[in-house]
Amino acid sequence: MRLGVDVGGTFTDLLLQDDATKTTYRAKTPSTPQDQSIGVSEGVRLICEKAGVKPSDISLVLHGTTVATNAVLEGKGARVGLLVTEGFEYTLHLAKSWTPGPLFGWIVMDKPDPLAALKDTRGIPERIDARGNVTRELDEARAIELIEDLCGSGIEALTISLMHSYANPAHEQRLRELVLERFPDMHVSLSSDILPEFREYDRAITTVMNDYVRPIMTRYLSRIEKRLAEVGVDSKLHIVRSDGGLMSAQAAASRPVHTVLSGPAGGVTATAMVARRTGLSKLLAFDMGGTSTDVSVIIDGEPTISRSTEVGFFPAKVPTLDVRSVGAGGGSIAEVSELTSSLRVGPRSAGAMPGPVAYGRGGTEPTVSDANVVLGYLPSRLLGGDMSLDVEGAREAVAGIGKAIGLGPEAAAQGILDIANEVMLGALRVITVQRGLDPRDFGMVAFGGAGPLHANAIAALLGCYPVVVPHNPGVLSALGFLEAEFKNEFVRTLIGSIAGMDDTQVFEQFAELRRKAVEWLDEQEVAEADRGITYSLDLRYEQQGFEVTIQVPADKIEEASGIESALADFHDTHERLYGVRFDLPIELVALRVVATGATPPVAEAPPASGSTDVSKAIIETQPGYFNGKWVDTPHVDRDRLAAGARVEGPAIIRQYDTTTVLLPDHYAEVDTLGNLMIWPTAKGE
């Protein structure tokens, strides 16, 4: 029994997998923003009741969390102290001299305060050069004075980020010893541990961000482990990393910066799983929840890994799945601008409490979900009848918006959906059209509580088919957590021209990184048969500012060869990515070793019951608003549909964890794996 838990802004989604019977159980419970662990423990009770098992039967808990992300976005992290090399106290303030846009952009820019304030920054007398040579010895007496002054001022965590510590971490390590001798309870992070790579600002801000969220993450993980124990769960808790891998709760507590995109990672991993099982090599992941929508690209069954991301205004140089997020979700609030009298949707959200007006929890402002209720796209009861919707309340709230702009309730609701769809469409264009990809070459996997509600309309605008609605779309991110593997990355910066570099040095460094990777796999208790280690080089043309990562086969590393083939791959990859190759010397920038530990795949059993006769699956017929008029629309129970069943639009396809809107001139067919495949009717004729 493995449990995936995805805490969203509105609902906490849970999916329990019984590996013995290939059965999955799903549950959704309202999130509890005041303490997310409360919603998780309630969800565990609920799903165990549904499955008829005891919490103690659960063997593994895999959890995606937005705690780190929210702390940075909301500016509610810890007070962080920063030790830097003397003379570099303004590193975080200088940043990269980046401004948003041309002249007007920086004139109106509200530059955020760094995550570590200047008053909490101290310059340490010491210096190491880029080759790791000590050019100025560490002045320990002065360092102790500065440490006692800073740590005694009330900081909650301490970052140590010295110049060129990636080449020689000795001074950072000694400073940590001095700190912990005097302040043993202080959270201390070294840049040489968190990001042992060159580029001074990236290394400093990433490590500071780690400490900014570290006390909060430590407290949260302690609470959730305590609550899981209280409900009877005695298995290990693992946290999903931003790159879709897994890490222990202890590792997440010490390196929470690796969880800044933990939440969206599950959906991307699950979309890659759908791509491999359906044979659709090009897919767009479309994850629409209550607060935001996350989109990403899957090519050849694999997601794109980025070496850096942004959390609000701040960069974080950690491996992440390439995800684009926008503030449009089911709970996004619709409002009329006082200045322009125009209708706007999001990014403000009603969240879990009070939520949309239709949820009846005290919400008064109309949301995207309320617009779906008004148009007849959402039934009056959700979650298998466990949750009733206030249809009249939603209509009244949307009508208020319509009155302000001279529209009736239906037209206002349609306008809300159209604007929300355009916002999400913009994110999809960024990851496709702006990168030279034609969205018409892709299908779309719709998931999240609201994804299947909007996916057909989005696909019609973009021309990307089929729309794939998996068997458990509302909890697909939680399912993706179960598909995740243990993962960690080990890096060594080694800058120099390939032509003048001793290959032996490269392979010696790879051997050292491999040793660290094996130690980490031992710590995570990954069985030998489940282990994997991959090798890569970061290469660039001489004097370029950015690198390209090139994989090197493991057998080549073991043979102490493969450099020449990597150079040829670099030229080809550079031309494929940027459309050009140069006859220039190639520089090596860094070596990377990625350790992975496989987990059992989620083997969902295809639907064993149901009928291909759609008439037997109709629950009721209710009015639905399509193409500017009300139409009698069948509401179909998805669980009664067998493989091969074909539903003609318009239709509302209902299930426990979500609702799928099938537009006119489209049809949905159940494939052999239980996925709904939505196509334009013209294609199926």
Individual helix count: 19
CATH architecture assignment name of the largest domain: 3-Layer(aba) Sandwich
Largest sheet: 9 strands, mixed
Global geometry: globular
Give helix % range: 25-40%
Poorly predicted spans: none
Q: In whole angstroms, how far apart are the ends?
A: 44 Å
CATH first level of the largest domain: which class?
A: Alpha Beta
Rg over CA atoms, rounded to whole Å, is: 26 Å
Q: State the CATH topology of the largest domain.
A: Dna Topoisomerase Vi A Subunit, Chain: A, domain 2
- Quickly give the structural class: alpha+beta
Mean pLDDT: 89
Q: Tell me the β content.
A: 25-35%
Total count of domains: 6
Count every beta strand, where a strand is a DSSP E run of 2 or more residues: 37
Question: What does this protein look like?
Answer:
With 685 residues, the chain is of the alpha+beta class. The chain has six domains: 2-72 and 226-259, Nucleotidyltransferase, domain 5, CATH 3.30.420; 77-216, Dna Topoisomerase Vi A Subunit, Chain: A, domain 2; 262-328 and 421-475, ATPase, nucleotide binding domain (Nucleotidyltransferase, domain 5), CATH 3.30.420; 332-416, no CATH class; 486-597, 2-Layer Sandwich (Dna Ligase, domain 1); 614-684, no CATH class. Strands 13, 14, 15, 20, 25, 26, 33, 36 and 37 form a nine-stranded mixed sheet that branches. The protein has a six-stranded mixed sheet with strand order 3-2-1-4-11-12, sandwiched between helices. Strands 6-5-9-10 form a four-stranded parallel sheet, with helices on both faces. Helix 10 packs across helix 15 and helix 11 packs across helix 12. The longest helix has 31 residues, at 200-230. The protein is globular. 48% of the residues are buried. The model has no long low-confidence stretch (mean pLDDT 89). It holds the Pfam family Hydantoinase_A. One of its GO terms (molecular function) is 5-oxoprolinase (ATP-hydrolyzing) activity.
